[in-house]
Amino acid sequence: MLLKYLGERGDRAGVDAAVAVSVPYDLPGSAQRLSNGAMGRVYGAYFLRSLRRKVRAKRHLLNGEVDVDRTLAARTLRDFDNACTAPLHGFAGADDYYARADVRRHLAHIRAPALLIQARDDPFLPLGATPDAIVADNPHLTAAFTDRGGHLGFVEGTLPWRPRFWAEREAARFLARELLPD
Questions:
Q1: Residues 117-135: pLDDT tens digits?
Q2: CB of 20 within 8 A of CB of 4?
Q3: CA–CA separation, 172 and 169 (whole Å)
Q4: What phi, psi does 164 have (nearest 5°)?
Q5: What is the percent of the chain where pLDDT is above 90?
Q6: 9-39: buried (b, 16+ CB within 10 Å) or exposed (e) per residue?
Q7: How many CA atoms lie within 13 A of 45 on its CB side?
Q8: Can you give the pTM of this predicted structure?
Q9: Is 80 exposed, middle or buried (0-12, 13-18, 19+ CB in 10 A)?
Q10: What angle do CA 151, 23, 43 make, to 5 degrees?
């Protein structure tokens, strides 16, 4: 959402610097990935359970806005997005949502310094989804794309006794460099 906002607003974003961690750079591919493969199905099932809990808790607000029964019956993220996400946010369906909300089409227009932290082995992303070429063409973007790290798993050091959280350290370093006076 942050990167999409920055790209849509360009020079008018009003943001001095940003960091984005584990971004779904390919929404349709991510939805597909979370429905296939052992690891994807584990993450996808967990994510769907979490979404269903939220829908049950907000049922009284969602009735009339979306088909709650269809939403709760969703077996894939694409099903959920067709039943709930898309209609709730004014999209014609999952494909329309994926096309219009996808951050890739906005990255070239970002004009604030932004650090993108992403693991290439993120089980939420299809292989090759990191936007290397777009980042290389935009001097406002800094890539911290690692081969390993999973989804938000940027941990190093002696585990479990002395973990160090690499993404948080890099984010703080980047923001300090961009925002603090010399």
A1: 999 988 888 888 999 999 9
A2: no
A3: 5
A4: -125, 140
A5: 70
A6: beeebeeeebbbbbbbbbbbbbbbbbbeeee
A7: 7
A8: 0.85
A9: buried
A10: 40
